[in-house]
Design a protein that fits this description.
459 residues, Alkaline Phosphatase, subunit A, 20 strands, 29% helix
Length: 459
């Protein structure tokens, strides 16, 4: 085999794809049977951005300087800025392959908009604002997408946090079918040594339908009309995998990979409400109703820390000499961080029962800390709870998401299934690392693995 075809499925989760439903996914099962695979440990935090970029660079989020889709651009109090391809300073696998005159196809990979030149073809990922902008390289490819898709090529679904479940389901199915048809159409054109696509459908559908499909979810109701939505979608994904394996041909090795998994969300911890209650955050005026947190409302000279909501929490300290109106002395920073860690890790649910929160300092978990990192990264309830950034909630706990319907949070393991001929020497492990994917791809093509990649080749 001298070509590699990768099928990236955002949020494909191992307890389903490698467990409960594997018997109903014969094509994925066949890849595992003749190759290697298992759970794939994601980045910390396990979220789409930066996980996919870490996968294709073998660099952790601190090395990338990308800690989420939104990041601080300065130590001012401005809103966070969106990451895009210009945020990625590290070389991707297709960059390395281009330098060795190998041709790549990249479809839907996060953090590829605006598109950058490569030896091959690139269609940008979900952060592309709309189809009215230039989102392919070369630009002429854009005109072919709808035809290749057999209809409309969808970059992403418009709103996956919605109560309109029928519309969400139809949109995700349409997007997934169009992405795979486009990917296979480009593969058929030939000439690619390496090809990778990322489909966001599993992520969007799981966030929208988890409560309906997981008997262990607190809101699950037996016999509800959406009970089999996720199972049927996974089966449909497996059929798409089979068609893609067939299109790839006998001279291609096929890899299926996901960046993280999903699991039931218990609720949300109102991080900025907690910070107010514990004397770290002071607002100019407390809102009377639940309101999105805004840095414009903060009384900065009286504030020591503030937080951002999301699948995990990011906490920032208001440090003197670093932030414009810093209230934490430089020598106090470590003590305040440890006080916050202790307080958050012992904070429990509504009844006071510990939920297993984990708090990290970037310098403890990353090999480098580039750009502006959070001072603390918080997994509420080991990611069974998400972080709600809203203020004026009137409670430290929510049983609903504060940014729209969402009943799943991310989990730390994704999926790897590589139908690689066993003669290639693939090493079987109980769990693989997301950082091992890039060096394994380079080794597949007989290339040296750069010394600054932090993963190890599994072949």
């Amino acid at each position: 085999m001298n070509r590699l075809v990768v099928i990236g499925l955002d949020c494909l989760t191992p307890q389903l794809a490698l467990g409960t439903w594997l018997r109903d996914m014969p094509n994925l099962k066949a890849l595992l049977g003749r190759g290697i695979g298992g759970p794939l440990r994601s980045t910390l935090p396990p979220i789409t951005v930066p996980a996919w970029t870490s996968m294709v660079t073998s660099k952790d989020p601190g090395m990338l300087g990308i800690y989420g889709f939104r990041n601080r651009a300065s130590y001012g109090y401005d809103r966070l800025e969106m990451a895009n391809s210009t945020s990625v300073a590290e070389q991707t696998v297709w960059g390395h392959l281009s330098a060795h005159r190998l041709r790549s196809l990249v479809v839907g990979m996060p953090l590829t908009y605006p598109p950058q030149a490569l030896n091959g073809v690139l269609i940008s990922g979900f952060e592309t604002p709309n189809k009215g902008v230039s989102f392919t390289y070369p630009a002429g490819i854009q005109e072919l997408l709808d035809r290749l898709a057999g209809g409309e090529y969808l970059i992403d679904v418009k709103d996956f946090r919605t109560e309109d479940k029928e519309s969400l389901l139809a949109s995700v199915r349409k997007m997934t079918e169009a992405r795979f048809r486009t990917y296979r159409g480009l593969l058929k054109a030939g000439g690619f040594d390496f090809a990778i696509m990322v489909e966001m459908g599993p992520d969007r559908l799981q966030h929208g339908f988890w409560r309906y499909c997981d008997p262990d979810h607190r809101l699950y109701q037996e016999g509800n009309p959406y009970q089999h939505v996720l199972h049927d979608y996974y089966v449909a994904l497996d059929q798409e995998i089979g068609r893609t394996v067939e299109t790839a041909g006998d001279d291609a090795a096929v890899m299926v990979v996901s960046d993280h998994g999903a699991k039931a969300m218990e609720g949300a911890i109102c991080v900025n409400e907690w910070l107010q209650a514990n004397g770290y955050l002071t607002l100019k005026e407390r809102p009377a109703v639940q309101t999105r947190f805004s840095t414009d409302t903060v009384d900065w000279p009286k504030t020591r820390a503030w937080g951002e909501g999301g699948y995990y929490a990011r906490l920032f300290l208001n440090v003197a000499g670093r932030e414009p109106q810093g209230a934490v002395g430089v020598r106090e920073r470590d003590r305040v961080c440890e006080d916050l860690r202790a307080g958050l890790e012992c904070f429990g649910d509504e009844a006071g029962k510990p939920i297993g929160t984990r708090v990290y300092r970037p310098e403890e978990i990353y090999r480098q800390v580039n750009r502006i990192a959070p001072d603390l990264i918080v997994y509420f309830g080991d990611l069974n709870w998400r972080s709600a950034g809203s203020v004026g909630v009137g409670s430290l706990h929510l049983r609903e998401n504060d940014t729209g319907p969402d009943d799943a949070n991310h989990m730390e393991d994704g999926v790897l299934a590589w139908g690689l001929d066993r003669s290639a020497g693939g090493e079987a492990k109980d769990r693989y690392s997301i950082y091992d994917i890039a060096p394994s791809i380079l080794r597949f093509f007989g290339l040296d693995v750069p010394g600054d990649m932090i993963g190890e080749s599994i072949i």
